[in-house]
Amino acid sequence: MNYVLALFLPPLSILLTGRIFTAIITFIIWVPAIIFSGGLTHPMFIVLAWILIYQSHADRRDRV
């Protein structure tokens, strides 16, 4: 479900993975990027969120 959320709100999705500082920085960069580029940079943030979600799942698997 977090992957679907990353399509629409990447900073919130990153926050839900437990990376608070990264989510704040991403939000600060994401909002002006969306406004000034007209959404052209949005896929970059989606990919970033997907990578971070995948890493958090991999970390959980390694701990068990």
From TrEMBL:
Keyword field contains Membrane: yes
Parts of the chain that traverse the membrane: 20-53
UniProt keyword terms in alphabetical order: Membrane, Transmembrane, Transmembrane helix
Name of protein: Glucose-inhibited division protein A
Lineage summary: Bacteria, Pseudomonadati, Pseudomonadota, Alphaproteobacteria, Rhodobacterales
